[in-house]
Amino acid sequence: MKYLYFAFSLVLLFNSCKENSENKVALNLSEHFKDDSLHFEINFPKTWEILNSNNETNSITISEKIKDSADMYQENISVWMEQMPLPISDSTYAIASHTQLKLSNPKIDLSPLEKTVINNQTFYTFHFDFVTTDTTKYAVIGYITTHGQRGYNFACTSIKNEMPNNEPIFKQILSTFKPL
User: Fold this and answer.
1) Is the pLDDT score of 7 beyond 80?
2) CA distances from 13 to 10, 18, 156 (A)
3) What is the mean pLDDT of the chain?
């Protein structure tokens, strides 16, 4: 009986720890980005910043600032908007984006598309990993959605072993996405 009670206690402890680890970390998404030419707005933490590409007028990167010398990488969300000649469904656009990524990178091991909803916004997601020349392993989770004649692509990038901690942060930021 003593062992049964001990085993039951361990199961309860394990489950409570698991539930707590899966809960979202509440972020203060106090910074706001709105761009009429990109046709969206989004909030992000004060510890992140917007980086504009000089060559790309249809994209931005929302990047975590380097915290300290031990911080190896700036986790980021690259966002690009694509103007389409006519409205198409999220699923059709997702298949086209997924295919385009595969064609431009034939060796990439893309996961199949999965439908997910974040704050009433439907996204199609995929993921892949890559290794740089210095052997650093990265993970990317892509989120694809449409609004009217615009397609939106979000590539959330993190060091691979840190992705389980960063994915909830990415999702919280994406939960504030509003197409204009």
Assistant:
1) no
2) 5, 9, 32
3) 84
Tokens 């994209």 appear where?
A: 59
**DSSP letter, residue 25:** P
Q: Is-contact 62 76, C-beta < 8 A?
A: yes
Cα–Cα distance measured from residue 160 to residue 143, given in angstroms and rounded to the nearest whole number: 17
Torsion from C-alpha of 59, 37, 149, 157, nearest 10 degrees? 20
How far is 37 from 32, CA to CA, in rounded Å?
A: 16
b vs e for 53-64, b when ≥16 Cβ sit within 10 Å of the residue's Cβ?
Answer: eeeeeebbbbbb
Radius of gyration of the chain (CA): 19
Beta bridge partners of 144: 124, 153
β-strands 59-64, 150-159: how paired? unpaired
Cα 146 vs. chain centroid, distance in angstroms?
A: 16
CA nearest to 33, candidates 69, 79, 67: 79
Is 113 in contact with 95 (CB distance < 8 Å)? Answer: yes
Give the position of tokens 């910043």: 49
How many residues are there in the chain?
180
- DSSP-assigned states of every residue in 140-151: EEEEEEEETTEE
The percent of residues in the chain predicted with pLDDT above 70, rounded, is 83
Cβ atoms of 95 and 108 within 8 Å: the answer is no
